[in-house]
Amino acid sequence: MLEAVFWIVFPIFLATSPWILSGIGTFIYQPKKKQQLLVREQASAQRGDVLSTLSKPLSGKEVKQTQLVLANVVMSPSWIQILIGGILSLFGGEINVFTKMVDWSRREAKQRLREEVEASDFDEVINMRLETTIMTKTKGGKDKTTGVEILAYGTAIKY
Predict the structure, then answer these.
(1) What domains does the chain contain, in order, with CATH numbers?
(2) Do the beta carbons of residue 150 and residue 111 sit within 8 Å?
(3) In the prediction, which pLDDT does 38 show?
(4) Whole-number pLDDT of residue 42
(5) Quick check: 59 pLDDT over 90?
């Protein structure tokens, strides 16, 4: 009897465990990481945002040192997010699960750039830019998006 239960329960467990792990990642781990990012962003905002897309500093001070700084992040959707996105793509329009993932990736890359600048003792970053790369793999002749890389870079300046 016990052996029969094992042969029924074990395959079900093997089939559902990746989805359960994906659910834990989607509904527990990701919100926790997003909350940590928000706290880091708020701490940086209190010190004043050091990122600017301007090509020249507004301060008028003499620039003593410059350096290229960059930060990147690679993120991919969970299986559950891919499933939800696939269903929503049948109807067309914006796919919120992917929009939120890309937004989170951009915010994380910009925050890492802020932290890089603060750690290297520069005053600000000018000409900050974001580059986005879609990562794909080919399977069975079809390209499958596996993630997105966001690269944030700019010119760090010291007065």
Answers:
(1) 2-158 (3.30.110.70)
(2) no
(3) 96
(4) 95
(5) no
